[in-house]
Structure formats: structure tokens, C-alpha cells
Amino acid sequence: MSNETKILLPESEMPTQWYNILADMPFSVPPYLHPVTFEMMGPEDLAPVFPMELIKQEVSTERYIPIPEEVLDIYRLWRPSPLYRARRWEKALNTPAKIYYKWEGVSPPGSHKPNTAIAQAYYNKMEGQTRLATETGAGQWGSSLAFACGIFDLECKVYMVRISYDQKPYRRIMMETWGASVVPSPSMDTQAGRNALAKDPNSPGSLGMAISEALEDAVTHEGTKYSLGSVVNHVLLHQTVIGQEAMKQLKIAGDYPDILIGCVGGGSNFAGLFLPFVKDKLDGKAPDLRILCVESTACPSLTKGLYKYDWADVAKTGPVSKMHTVGHNFIPAPIHAGGLRYHGMSPIICALYDHDLVEASAYHQNEVFEAVVGFARSEGFIFAPETAHAVKAVMDEAIKCREAGEEKTIVFNASGHGHFDLAAYDAYLNGTLVDYDYPEEKIKAALKELPQVDG
Length: 455
Ligand SMILES: *Cc1c(COP(=O)(O)O)cnc(C)c1O
Prior knowledge:
The chain has helices spanning 43-46, 52-59, 69-75, 87-93, 114-126, 140-152, 162-167, 169-177, 191-199, 207-220, 233-239, 241-253, 268-282, 301-304, 347-354, 365-379, 385-404, 422-430, 440-447, and strands spanning 6-7, 17-19, 64-66, 83-85, 98-103, 131-136, 155-161, 181-185, 224-226, 259-263, 290-296, 306-311, 320-325, 359-363, 409-414. The chain is an alpha/beta fold. The protein has two domains: 6-13 and 78-110 and 240-445, Rossmann fold, CATH 3.40.50; 17-41 and 49-66 and 112-233, Rossmann fold (3-Layer(aba) Sandwich). Strands 1-4-5-15-10-11-14 form a seven-stranded mixed sheet, with helices on both faces. Strand 10 (259-263), helix 13 and strand 11 form a beta-alpha-beta unit. Bound molecules: pyridoxal-5'-phosphate. Residues 111, 113, 140-141, 230, 263-269, 339, 384, 386-387, 415-416 line the site of pyridoxal-5'-phosphate.
């Protein structure tokens, strides 16, 4: 038992391997299909957009994959990240529950995302690429990749969803500071963008649109590959440093979680925390452990979407995968948690959800901000609006513990800070934050446009 507020690991205790859940899944994760032919995709189909090492990792069934020394060296800038015990918030909630949070906001861009950005930039550099193209919503992923490309001396082109580009200049400035070039999407730089602008010159853009542009950029430019910040297997793999560290830190604290909680957009930050614990569950060491994925009511892929094959992007250029989806054409309401607005979900998480190994819930933004402001007043840290969704779910579980008189251990992933999202806090504090109800008709319409494939 320790009475520390934050449990720190020395650098020497940083994980040196990523944990690959595909080695231990007792069921298969459905394969990617070609966006046009719907044939199973092989490595040669992915080679135009990803470096070979990442393609190998995407389908690998090796349980542990060594982290290259060069990547570990950059991780050391902020890893191991601290695990905090939220004692003041526990007291404020008057709960017997023990609440811990793994704080990923300590990285230079301020979120978990560089855990994979650094690895991806490294493998591209090793395979002779000179430039990476990607999309970003509010700029969390773009800034992480810009940081990574800066470190490995790669050019970086970021297609930033127009509405965020206009409304949220600070992450763009961050990206430019690290040397990236950033354009609003839809842009005139790709055919997909020009088509969209011809239809609607004032298009606010969407993540699906920006993905189409970045994919097209990668296949039409020499020395350029595409880079993805969530959803796919290799991204979840890289994030498992979070859970491996958390396990060691909880051991130091003399604790083991009863409930793990995290927000899910594409699913990478939370999977990074929970996948090493899923192994414990599968090994029979933690039969009662609950794993709770939290999403936004404005984009409820797990809680309201269908488990069907769907395209990754609007232009249908990315692979088709089986996932819980609200439809590739669904444009979610402009909630402040930009990272929770993706129409699909990690196929690994969807398979686990389908087999009842993880649960899901969804919240509106006002209740989420009420919870996270309460957290900030107890613990100090001002979390990203995405992270705030996890905080609300933790609060609800902690209150249940109070009512039942149960001293459960709750651990959540604090995926990032909200220093560039203060306008959202302002809207909440001023009472002008809007809740978006789930537009059932719109999701139904979007689901009609799914590819016609079995499964
Ligand atoms: C991008 C982002 C998310 C959502 O993405 P996941 O892949 O689901 O983790 C959550 N929190 C923060 C801070 C983010 O930047």
C-alpha cells in the first residue's frame, strides 16, 4: 500500500515491448476488404499507403513486439507518464471508491497520440520515406504527427477539417511551429477536395473527407505515405505502453482495478490502457474486471451503430472493415470533443464488444462538462473535452459505489489536456453549450449506404 498522490516509474521501468492482443484473441477480428472489389486486402494493397513494418504489425500475431531503441529514446521525453490517485476528487464525490488516472497529457503535444506518431514516423524514415500526409480534426493528431516528423526530419502535410481550421488556430500554429504544412479540408490540393468544393464552396469539412484527401495525397506524391492516428491495429498496439505502465504503477500502489474507464473516438487511447488487462481477463486472472468505453451521444458508434462492414472515409478510398458504425456519410453534430466524432470504431474494440468483454455508454456534452469542471476544481488538471467523457462515467460509477457502500478501484485514462479547448469550457460556463440528441433518422439514412457485403 502506498499513500502517494502520483505513482512514478523510473525510466528504466518503461516498457520495451508493445503488447499485441491479436496473439491472445480467442476469436478472429474480421479482415479488411478492398474498397471497390470487397476482396480481402493483402499487404500489397496496403503498401501504397503504409510502410511495410506497419503493415506487418497490423496483422502480426506475435504477442510482444520490441520497441525500437530510437523510439524508446523519444518516449523518454515524457514517459513513463504518471499515475495519479484522485484523493481530493474522491472526497468531493464522497465516495468510498478509489480513483486513479493515467495522465497522458504530459507529452509535448499534450495527449496520448505521440505514442504512435513517433513509432510511425520512425518506421517511415527507416524505409526511406521523406514525407507523411494525414488528416486532423481539431488538431490533436496533426500536432502529434507534426511533432514526430519534426524529430525524424520528415516533411508533414496535414489536411485539417475546415471548421476547426477556422475556429481553432492554436493547434495549427503548433503544427507549423514543428514544421508541418497545414491546409483546410476540403482543399484545392486534391481531386477529392476539389470535387467537394465544387459541390459546396463553403463546406465545413469532416474527418471522413480529410482522410480521403490525405490518402489521395499519399498515393500521388513520391516518397509520401499516409499516417493514421487511431482505429487500426498498429495504432492500438503502440498505445499499449500506457496499460503496461499502469499495471506496474498499480502494483506499486498495491491495487488492481475493478473498473477501467476511457473515452473512445476511434478507440486508441483507451485500448492502450485496457488491452494488457484484457490479457489478464482472458487468462482468468481478472474475471470480474469491467471495461467501460465512453462515447458521445452525438456520435454513438458502439451504443447505437450497427456491427457491419463500412468504408473508412467519405470518398470510399480507404479499406472496408467490420466495425460498429453510424455510417461513413454520417456527419456528427459539432460537439467540442472533436476526437469523438469518427463514424466508426477500432475493429479490435468492436470484436471485444461483440463478445461482451467490454461495455459502452454515451453522454451529452453538458453533463460531461459539469463533471470535468468538478474534477478540475478538485484535482487541478483541465482535461480535453474527449477525456471529460471518461470523467463523467467515472463520476457515475463512484456515486454508485457511494450508494452501495462499495470500495471499488476505478482507473481511467486521462488522454489529454484541454488547454486549446477553453472556448468549450467558456461555452459551458456561460450556459451556451448545446446538447445534441441522437438523430435516429440521419443514422438510419447513413446506414442505408453501407457496402453490400456479408458479415
Ligand atoms: C484523439 C483523442 C481522443 C480520441 O481518439 P482515440 O483514438 O479514441 O483515443 C481522445 N482524447 C484525446 C485527448 C484525443 O486527442
